Structure formats: C-alpha cells, structure tokens
Amino acid sequence: MVRLQIALGVIITVVGLIVVAWIALNEDANLARRDEEILARRIERGAVLFEQNCYTCHGFSAQGVPGLGPPLNDREMLEQRVKEVGWPGSLYSYLVRTIAGGRIVSTRPEYLGGKASDPNAMAMPPWWEEYGGPLRKADVEDIALFLQNFEEFPPELLAEMATPTPEAGEQQPEEGGVDAVAVDLFTQLGCLGCHSLATVPGAVGTVGPPLDGLGERAASVIADPAYTGNATTPEEYIRESIVDPSAFVVAGYPDVMPKGFGDQLSEEQLNALVQFLLKQ
Amino acid sequence: MLGLQDLRNLPKDFERKVRELLNQDLEETVRERLDSRVRTITAGLDLEELRAIFRGDAPTEKPNPRWKVHTTSFLFHIRPRYYQRASTWFTHTFRLGWLSTYLFFIELITGIILMVYYAPTPDTAYRDMLNILSNVRFGLLMRDLHRLGAELMVIAVFLHMVRVYFTGSYKKPREFTWLTGVVLLGITLFLSFSGYLLPWDQLAYWAVTIGTSMADKTPLIGREVNLLLRGAPDIGAGGLLRFYLLHVLFLPLLAILFISVHYYKVSREHGISLPAVVEEGEMDEDRRRWAKERIDFIPDLLTHELFLSVLVLVAMVIAVTVWFDAPLESQANPQVTPLDTKAPWYFLWLQGMLKLGDPTLMGVVLPGIIVLFLAAIPYIDNNPSRLAKNRPVALSLGVLGVIVLIILSYMGTPQWGIETPPAVRIVQDLVPQEGVGPFRKLGYEKIKLGTFETDSFTLPDNPDEFDILFAEFQDRVRNAPLASPQGVWEIDMLQPTLKRVKMRITWTKLDENGNILLDEQGQPVRDQYEKVFFVHESSGYEYE
Ligand code: HEM
Known about the structure:
The structure holds 2 protein chains of 2 kinds. Chain A contains 13 helices and no strands. By secondary structure, chain A is mostly helical. In chain A, helix 10 crosses helix 11 and helix 11 (234-243) packs across helix 13. The radius of gyration of chain A is 27 Å and the shape is elongated. The termini of chain A are far apart. In chain A, 28% of the residues are buried. Chain B is an alpha+beta fold. In chain B, helix 10 packs across helix 11, helix 10 runs antiparallel to helix 13 and helix 11 runs antiparallel to helix 12. The longest helix of chain B has 34 residues, at 237-270. Chain B starts with a helix and ends in an 8-residue tail after the last strand. Chains A and B meet through helix 1, helix 5, helix 6 and helix 7 of A and helix 3, helix 8, helix 16, strand 3 and strand 4 of B.
C-alpha cells in the first residue's frame, strides 16, 4: 500500500505540475484577454447608463439634441475639444471630470439656444454622487469609456449595416441598388441622428419626426389646410422637406433641420433619397 | 589577522587536509555527514530508516525510531503514533475530518495570497477583484481555488457530521468532541458567508443584505445585532470592513482554536472511534484482534495522507481550470435590487424556511432551536449501543433530517414560490441582469442587425443559432399568459464595435375582470416591457 500510494502520488504530482505549467504558459495571454473583456463590458455598462441618464440632452445615440446638449458621438471631435479648452490631461480624464462635475457655465452656447444666456441655468448638472449627482465613480468612468469608444464607421461596416435583414428584404423589392445608395446617404448625412426609420439600422433619432410611413403621411399633410409649403404631390413634399425644411415645419417639432442639404446633394442622390423615403 | 607566514603555509595546510581526507574512508565520511543532515531534517530518522520506510520494511532499530519523530518534531507530536486498524478503515471515516482540516489549510494559504491584492473598501474592493482577474498572474487560479475550497469545506464538514452521526461516534465518551464539532460547523458556515461579501458585487451585496436582515428579526436585540454586523443601518464601508475582519482574522483564529481542541480530543483523549461492529458487534475473535491491531502513523498513514493531499489538490486545480469559476457579477449597487436574489446554497434551507412563516420564528427562533438540538444530541440520545440495528429511531430521524434539509433548500431557490411577470421572465431568461444568458452567448458576430418581430418571423430553411433563439423567443411570447402578446428585437450599431439591442414585449392591458381596457379613441391600451442592452465586439461572452 505504501509503495503504491507513493508511486501514484508521484504521478499525480507530475500531472498537477503539468497543469500548472500549462496555466503558466497561457497566463499572460489570458490576462490580456480578460483585461480586454472587462473593458468591453464596462463599455456596455456605460452605454446603458448613458441611455438611461443622458438621452434627454445628448440624444439616445449621443448625436446631440438641438437646444439642449451638444453631440458627443465623435471621438475625434471630443479630442479636438480637449485641445481647444487647453485641458492638460487625456480625453478620458476630461470626460470623467466633465461628467462627474457637470458644467456650471456653458462653453458652447451655440448648442444651447436661449438657455446659455440664462445666468441661473446650469449648462449640465453634475453626475457623480459626491457632487450631488446620482451616479457612482465607477458609473461615471464606464460612461467615459463608452464615449471614448466612438469612432468613424468604416465603409465596409456601413455597407453591412445597410444590407437588408430578412424581414426588411420582403418590404424592399428588387431595386436594392437605388435603395442602398439612399440608405448610405441617410447614414452619412446624419439623417439617422435625428430621424428614426425602421429600415435603416441605427436610425433612432428623436429630434425630428419618425419617417416610417412617410409616403402615405405626405399625402395627408399637403391636403391639410395648415400646410404652408408649395408641394402638390407626396414626392414633391419630401423633396421640399429636404431642400427647404423651413417651408413647412411639422407641428410639434423645432425648425432645426439643417438647411444646406439641397446644395450638398446631386440631383441623382436627391432622387434616390426621395424615392426611398416615398416607399416608407 | 592572516599574516604573511600563514599565507606561505597555505599550500602546506591544504595538502595536509587532503591527505587526512584521503586517509579516511571517503564513502564513510559522506555517509556520516549525510546521515546527520537527514536526521536533522526528518527529526530523527536516518538514511537507512528512510530507505526502509520507502521499501515498506520493518523499522531498522529498536526502539522504533519512527516513534521518536513524534516527540522530536512539533508537527508530528500533534499526531498520534499509531491508530487502531479498524478506526482507519476508509468506509468508517471517509477521511472527512481530515479533508475538512486540509481544506482549511488550503483556504489559509490561498486566502493570504488573495489578501495581498485586496483592500476592503467599497471603492476598491470590486476594482481589486477585476485586477486580480486581469492583472495578477495566477490570480484567477487563487481566487477559484479559494472559492472552490470554501464550498468543498462546507460540504466536507457537513458530511463529516453526518458520518459521525450515523456511526454513532458522538456517544460517550465523545460528547464534548461533538459539541466542539457543532461550534466548528457554525464557524465554517460563517467563514464562508463572511467571505461571500468581500468581492462587493451584486451577488454578494444582496445575499448578505438578506442574510443580515434576518438578524434584525431577533427578538429584543434585533436592531443592535444588525447594527453590530453591518456597522450602519445599511451595508456600506463599515459593514465591508467588519465582514473582512471577521473573515480574515476573527473567524480563522476561532477556527484554529476550535479545530485544535476538537483534534486534541480526537487524537489524544479518545482516539478515533472503532466501527461499531468491531467494538460491540458479532465478529470472529481473530478478526477482531486483527482489526484492533495498532498501525503506525509513520509510514502507513503518513503516506496515505500525503497521497490524499496531492490527489485533492490536483483534482481541485484541474476542476478550476476545466469548469469551476468563482462568480463575479457587476459591482454592488444598493439602488438596484436584482431580480433573482438568492442566498448562498448552504443557506438556502434557511431561505426556504423563511418562505414558510413569520421571519422571527422561522429565521431566528427555529434555527436557534435546531442548533441547540444538534449540540444536545449526545445527551438526548442515551441509547448506549452504536450498532445500526439497535438504533432504528436515531437512524430514521437522521435520514429524515437530511431529506427535510434538501426539501427546504429546494424551496429556498428563487424558482419556488416567487412570481416574476411573464414578459420580464422571458427577457430575463434570455439576457439575465447578471451573467451571460443564451442571447449574449451567441457572441457579437452572430447577433444580426435588423428588426425581428414575433408576428412576422418564420424560421428560414437553414436557420442559424440566432434564428433558432428568436424562434424560441417567438414561441415563449406567443404562449405567454398575456393578451395578444407581441415581441420585437431591434438591433443596430451604435458604435463600430458596439451593437445595441432593444427587446420589447407588448400586450393588451386587461382590468381585474379580464376585460380589455380601451383608451379615449376606443383603441385597446397596450402595455410593454422593454430592455435595452449592448454587446461589445470583445466582451468574450461566447467563450463563457
Ligand atoms: C472545521 C470543521 C471540523 C474539522 C476540521 C474536524 C476534524 C475532525 C477530525 C480530523 C476528526 C478525526 C476523524 C475523522 O477524520 O473523521 C474528527 C472527528 C470527530 N469529529 Fe470533527 N471536525 C470538524 C467538524 C465537526 C462537526 C461539525 C462535528 C459534529 C457536529 C464533529 C464531530 C466529530 C466527532 C464526534 C469526532 C470523533 C469521531 C470518531 O471518533 O469517530 N466534527 N473531526
């Protein structure tokens, strides 16, 4: 018994050492992987916290809400900001500081409308609990990590995002080519930041009216006596809304849709966009 | 001082030394030197003796030099020189007492290593856990071993008690040993429980909040007991520090004290009991004599224990590399009560009891009585025989006790008796608040962009995992006890590496009588439950 157990014990010890050696060999790679995973999950948490706390002023997708808060969905823009204000630290520390402490006096009144000149209104309230906000330190940090994770969508990804999903495919018949152009435009020009549209992934903006069912709605709008524009067909109405948004301002929405789209778009592009929206 | 003359003499001295050495028997010298070294290290065994031990031969000298070790070595003086053969039969003790002790030492060592990387404040505790996982070499291994060891120790101690009960080993003269054992059971449970809070995640925070709120129900001094434990009305910095000190200082010291007393009683005073058959049963006298023969601790039992030690340790290391993961949820948040809170499994029986009635009665008074009853068992049971056939009542009560414990534990799980609204349940099962769940498990790549509706979705001809999961969702939504339920998944990209998922279930609102509620326009009122969450490219859910 003694010798058997010694022999078995030695074998088991060797097995144990091999397992530990195997762990040791993979340990550095595993640590790096877990580090990345932890960061990724903090970004996810930050995104949830952002949607819960910040959407009222910065929009659900951080695209900004005219008159209430600037867009935050562009890391390069934010890095630019950090240089502009002469912040000595990193973008991350700027974000943490800004979110934790809020902003007493507006530095970007152009985003604030009338509120910026009101000396009694705080531009942005503080968010960290130590300063009277609702969030904990780790929450603020997670949101900062999330904002830092914004970057340009690479073209391949944009194309992929625009590929119709099975359901969407049923609604959009063969003219995939023209539609794909329109979806690209809709994404690149930032329409999706202000408008929601079920057929365009990422189009969840709430600043402007939802564009689902626009083709049908357009007809009833121009028939309405309250309509102030010059369009006589739904197609014309949509074209007008893009080229000259002020011609008719949809009830309940501010007149903030950019006015320059008419100059930016070629005739073909405009047509594609109008035809696409007409079908919605 | 080394003078010039000495230097001149050096070669001559050296020569003389060498000549001296050469004159001696070289082998003899080496052996002697080695021998004395070996004796120092082994507390008295020489080389010859060691060889004999490994060969399994009888002792080389008389008196048995192996016994001497028990007087010269501190560590060995704790252990008895010999045991009676039958008391070491595996099926008598199952080595469960030994295992409890061994696990306790594993906990001490892994625990001290973890302490190096951990500071017990609400701001740092959770961050330190993440750091241990992502920045400390072997940190995950230590944490998993510590967690697994703690849970195994609870199991081992409990089973040890069960075996002592069923072999009747608590009877005279071992009543006091049993009593110290009951204290040790308590210490083990509270050691585990106090450690539970330290990661400072949601799991820990809420389990301990529920646990300590039971103290609140103690008659008369409930509030004070609770304050003493938590350090404030709610668990915060003070409570964390207190649990930490309990866990790393007070309870371990208490455990060491009681294990020592317990073990002293077992090894010095009464010895491990003999199996009842050997002691009082019918048995061939020769065989009985053989069963009561002494076997030496060195080498038979020592080798056996060393063998078990490596076996258990290596099994644990393999277990934590292959499947066991110590859980870590998101950081503790007093503002967010998780949907499914549950006590650690070894306290589920208590949670089960609490569902049965008044918290003071079920959470404090009854458990108190149970503990007192456990401690008093040797005094209540005055049946002198330990043979199973003479203890029908005690044994059936024991079996009954274990069954009741299992049933109560089952009743303690959140599945039993707690209703979650159906829409919340469906979404929670797919994407739990904590942990991964089947949806995230798909992984970033397999999550498709687009809008998916239960009304229009049909399973394609060659469905992938995503389609199948949605079909399951569709099925559950359609069969949910709701009026015309509809479910939607809206998935888009918020950032180039971040997908946003909205899961929504809507249904028609009914009043108490089951009638459809209508709004001013005469449209049915729809109710909804929505959950928005995100999946990042490198979250690694698919690997969990
Ligand atoms: C940390 C917890 C404990 C440790 C480390 C421990 C350790 C031990 C050890 C090493 C033995 C020698 C026999 C064997 O290995 O089975 C033993 C025997 C014994 N233990 Fe424990 N024990 C613990 C908990 C308990 C509990 C919870 C009880 C019962 C309530 C208990 C009651 C006894 C009794 C009565 C004996 C004598 C058994 C006999 O002589 O056959 N112990 N204990």
